Automatic annotation (TrEMBL):
Upper classification of the organism: Eukaryota, Metazoa, Ecdysozoa, Arthropoda, Hexapoda
Cofactor note (record): Binds 1 zinc ion per subunit.
Domain of life per record: Eukaryota
Catalytic activity annotation: Release of an N-terminal amino acid, Xaa-|-Yaa- from a peptide, amide or arylamide. Xaa is preferably Ala, but may be most amino acids including Pro (slow action). When a terminal hydrophobic residue is followed by a prolyl residue, the two may be released as an intact Xaa-Pro dipeptide
UniProt keyword rRNA processing present: no
Location in the cell: Cell membrane
Residue ranges constituting the Peptidase M1 membrane alanine aminopeptidase domain according to the UniProt record: 285-508
Name listed for the protein in its UniProt record: Aminopeptidase
Family: Belongs to the peptidase M1 family.
Primary location: membrane
CC per GO annotation: cytoplasm; extracellular space; plasma membrane; side of membrane
């Protein structure tokens, strides 16, 4: 499942470093993870929960289901929210008991009975309900227990209402081509919402088969996990074939007037469903789906288990996408692609998210997880294979650069707090389960799995996954099953491993955080030592954690980064020596292609050798290592582990850089510096430095899209435009503003791939007429990907009147904003500078209750709580702090505020003050010195200067 978070989860600034593509992209997952044009913004890991809670939220398991017959009736075509249902559950009594306990949510039970196999007549049951645990108890009217081992069919009649929060069985709408409102009913059950559509045993290990019947208007169609049983169906009554045994949260059905496009590859039919009028935008998802599913089946050595697979684009959808078995569902922006109007980012997102959901068809569906404790066991694999499968389908893209900047760096940023949670983490309550959908379960787990994929070789890893899937098919697994499968694979492939897989991989799943490797070289004999300790952003935190760590290394004389297999290990020990024979003047770089999930700090001399190598021969070092060297150096300098001059000197190699991952990483660093230094008296010095490093790539790529260029060069152009305009480069400011004016005044279209940059940077300087034009374009558009770009861009305005209009529209329910969009307006404004921050502050001062009452979506946090947390990360002066604390005092006892809101806000203030205390003076001192010396202190190098001149000249002729 791809999940995306809003509010504070949009922008948690101080520790965010990696900046992703310059338009909306896939993760954050999006929970789920959410990423906008500024980078990754993730949910904070939940606090540790005790292994047992009181009361116990787990079902008693005295009764288990084997099959469900679900019969639902909906008149959603009329906009009617009411639905009725009958569910017949075949059950087996594992223990003698007088009652059956299952889940239900927001349902009215009108009748309940059971027909035992040993009797001829049904027996009525008494019902009781517990709100807290959502337990529906159906009890015999006598005290005679159901016999252990006996079986029966439980029948429950009930009524319900389609929800409005995009969860459970819910209502969605869209406007047709004539402007008429059309309604549909759809589902989103992960993790605990199947119980809203039908009473059930709503736990992932409680697998059963399902036969689903939908009764609806003959003018509408119904689709579900399985193909239609044509023999049993009739107009207005759609019966589906019986599913294999599966968890309840993977059940799905949609009643709508959607249209579809169909394709068949190797006898497996696939369809894309979406609202009428969008059929022409279905092709990319269809083709990508067929290619990706085929690549996954090949890699796993396990065929797709169902007779068909559909994908549906839903107008209202809180998550990014959902892996329902045989019927994956998506936000429209992650399914519909128009070759004339959509961006390269949308194209990439669609393939990447399809790969994520299709990987779940094996990891999570074919083999379920025993309990939500092991959420990473499906989400980590889906994250990893969203890239592996996309890379297999489109190898020319080079998508691993995006994995590095988005998931890998995002995980490192978010997994270094005071007490990060482990991947394997016990939870019980639905709220606790919801909090597991964070960077740990997705990005970290995917990165850890990727590390072992490389360390053990792809041959062993692939064989291990095949073993895991075939040994646990149609059942539920725990992590030990995976470890055993890989251990067996190593024996089958005659691959020697230095320790047990359960010990090596378990050291990463059972404890939070990750290690810092400190490398010290002996320049006399050429050897080096590697020492591990737990890494925390706060360098004063001590920990005795230890991991089994695979690593390898490249040197200046052997700069081959291709083979990523582990050559050395730290086997749960603090330090190891490596008897290399390195030359005194050659650099040493550990962790080829940055596949290992850790940070690496070197002695100062080696850092200087690396910088020299980057300046003179940057392309001898792999681009992902070039990115990670900057990423690590920033974090080390910001935490007193490394002299700021090391990072700043490293950045001077960038005029020679052309690849996306390094530029994206540099952009993240510059954005953080800009956020804190924006009001500084010497801010102009910072801008001049940024202009110097970005001018060559900006001059090379320009602001115009170029058809046929490399996939990620378009991403790099977007980064270059944003950095150039941030630096105040006149040509960037003028050209972006002129492009936006040409659109407004002369209807000259902006190329889709640079829309985000043109809108945002143009709106920073726009008149009210231009702002209103873009605002109205948002309200009129039915393209959800474009709508996201426009929302993010409107927040770029630096005009208070314009921003007041923008943020106030979040609570104007007469406008055209969708439910899931309303709580996304504030963060693009408060994260873009003091003017936007104050506009949000003024708005919340007056309208905090109305904003808090916005629908946050299923399983989400409150929009007001999110906004206040997010704004606290951008408060850099006393006035901002005082105003926000006054608002917290006003709202902290309301239903909108979490218990620890004030604590979090104060902590964010302290983080910002500490950052400025540690970083401001050394940064500005270095920058002033650099300017005073004309850049000579660092000497960009003759080679780099020649490159700059050649690039500029190439733009002139």
């Amino acid at each position: 499942m791809q999940r995306f978070v809003v509010g504070v989860l949009y922008l948690t600034a101080a520790v965010i470093l990696a900046a992703g593509p310059a338009q909306a992209a896939s993760r954050a997952l999006t929970p789920p993870l959410y990423r906008d044009d500024n980078g990754w913004f993730q949910e904070n890991p939940n606090a540790r929960v005790s292994p047992r809670a009181d009361p116990d939220y787990r079902l008693p398991n005295t009764t288990i289901p084997t099959h469900y017959d679900i019969d639902l009736t909906t008149m959603v075509h009329e906009g009617d929210r009411k639905f009725t249902g009958i569910v017949k559950i075949h059950v087996t009594f594992e223990e003698a008991t007088t009652s059956i306990v299952l889940h239900a949510r927001q349902l009215i039970i009108t009748e309940a009975s059971i027909q035992l196999d040993t009797t001829d007549t049904p027996e009525d049951l008494e019902q009781s309900y517990e709100d807290e645990r959502e337990f529906l108890t159906l009890a015999r009217t006598t005290n005679t227990p159901f016999a252990k081992g006996s079986q029966g069919v439980l029948t429950v009649h009930y009524n319900g209402e389609l929800r409005l929060d995009n969860g459970g069985f819910y209502l969605s709408t869209y406007n047709d081509t004539n402007g008429n409102v059309r309604h549909l009913a759809t589902t989103q059950f992960e993790s605990t919402d199947a119980r809203h559509a039908f009473p059930c045993f709503d736990e992932p290990a409680m697998r059963a088969t399902f036969t689903i019947t939908m009764r609806h208007s003959p003018s509408y169609k119904a689709i579900s996990n399985m193909p239609v049983n044509t023999m049993e169906s009739s107009p207005g009554v759609t019966v589906f074939q019986t599913t294999p045994n599966m968890p309840t949260y993977l059940v799905a059905f949609i009643v709508s007037d959607f249209e579809y496009t169909e394709g068949v590859l190797n006898s497996l039919p696939q369809r894309i469903y979406s609202r009428p009028g969008t059929e022409g935008d279905q092709e990319w998802a269809l083709v990508s789906g067929m290619l990706i599913l085929e690549r996954l089946a090949e890699y796993y050595g396990v065929p797709f288990a169902l007779p068909k697979i559909d994908q549906a684009a839903i107008p209202d959808f809180a998550a990014g996408a959902m892996e329902n078995w045989g019927l994956a569902t998506y936000r429209e922006e992650y399914m519909l692609y128009n070759k004339d109007h959509s961006t390269i980012t949308t194209q990439t997102n669609i393939a990447n998210i399809i790969a994520h959901e299709y990987a779940h068809q094996w990891f999570g569906n074919y083999v379920a997880i025993q309990w939500w404790t092991y959420l990473w066991l499906k989400e980590g694999f889906a994250t990893l294979f969203s890239y592996k499968a996309t890379d297999a389908a489109y190898p020319e893209w080079g998508i691993w650069q995006q994995f590095h900047t988005d998931d890998y760096q995002g995980a490192l940023n978010n997994d270094a707090g005071v007490s990060p949670r482990p991947m394997t983490h016990y939870v019980q309550k639905p709220q606790e389960i919801s909090r597991l959908y964070d960077t740990v379960s997705y990005a970290k787990a995917g990165s850890v799995l990727n590390m072992w994929n490389h360390a053990l070789t792809d041959t062993v890893f692939q064989r291990g996954l095949h073993n895991y899937l075939t040994a646990n098919n149609f059942s539920a697994a725990v992590e030990d099953k995976l470890f055993t499968a890989i251990q067996i694979a190593s024996k089958e492939e005659n691959y020697e491993i230095p320790a047990k897989i359960e010990d090596m991989m378990g050291s990463w799943t059972h404890q939070g955080g990750y290690p810092l490797l400190t490398v010290k070289r002996n320049y006399d004999d050429g050897s080096f030592s590697v020492t591990q300790q737990a890494f925390h952003n706060n360098e004063t935190i001590n920990s005795d954690k230890s991991w089994y760590i695979p690593f390898n290394y490249a040197t200046q004389s052997n700069a081959d980064f291709r083979d990523t297999e582990a050559t050395n290990y730290l086997l749960n020990v603090k330090s190891v020596s490596v008897g290399a024979k390195l030359g005194k003047e050659e650099w040493l770089i550990l962790n080829k292609q940055s596949t290992g999930y850790y940070r690496i700090n070197y002695d100062e001399q080696n850092w200087k050798l690396i910088i020299n190598g980057l300046i003179h021969h940057p392309f001898k070092i792999h681009p992902r290592n070039r990115a990670q060297l900057m990423h690590d150096a920033y974090r080390f300098s910001a935490s007193n582990r490394l002299n700021h001059a090391i990072l700043l000197e490293m950045l001077t190699y960038l005029p020679s850089e052309v690849e996306y991952a390094p530029w994206s990483t540099a952009n993240g660093i510059i954005n953080i510096y800009n956020r804190y230094l924006g009001g500084d008296n010497d801010y102009k010095v910072f801008q001049e430095f940024v202009a110097e490093i970005v001018t060559p790539i900006y001059e090379k790529l320009g602001i115009n899209d170029v058809p046929g260029e490399h996939h990620y060069q378009k991403f790099t152009r977007n980064v270059a435009i944003n950095m150039a305009c941030l630096a105040g480069i006149n040509s960037c400011l003028k050209e972006t503003n002129d492009k936006l004016k040409d659109l407004v005044e002369h209807d000259v279209a902006i190329e889709p791939n640079v829309q985000s940059q043109i809108y945002c940077n143009g709106l920073k300087q726009s008149s009210n007429d231009v702002f209103d034009f873009v605002y109205n374009k948002l309200m009129d558009s039915d393209d959800q990907a474009l709508r996201r770009i426009l929302i993010n861009s409107l927040g770029c305005s630096q005009n208070k009147q314009q921003l007041d209009k923008f943020v106030s529209s979040s609570i104007d329910h007469d406008n055209e904003l969708r439910v899931q969009e309303r709580s996304t307006l504030l963060s693009p404004a408060y994260s873009r500078g003091l003017t936007g921050w104050m506009a949000c502050m003024d708005f919340l001062d007056k309208h905090w209750d109305a904003y808090g009452n916005l629908n946050g979506g299923f399983g989400g946090t409150n929009p007001l709580d999110d906004a206040i947390r997010g704004m606290s990360s951008y408060a850099n002066n006393e006035e901002q702090e005082n105003r926000l604390l006054a608002l917290v005092a006003k709202v902290k006892n309301s239903v909108h505020a979490s218990a620890n809101l004030e604590e979090v806000v104060e902590a964010n203030f302290k983080t910002n003050r500490d950052w400025l205390k540690i970083n401001r003076d050394p940064l500005m001192s270095w920058l002033i010195s650099y300017r005073s010396n004309g850049g000579a202190t660092l000497a960009i190098s003759t080679l780099s200067m020649v490159s700059v001149i050649l690039l500029v000249v190439s733009r002139l002729f």
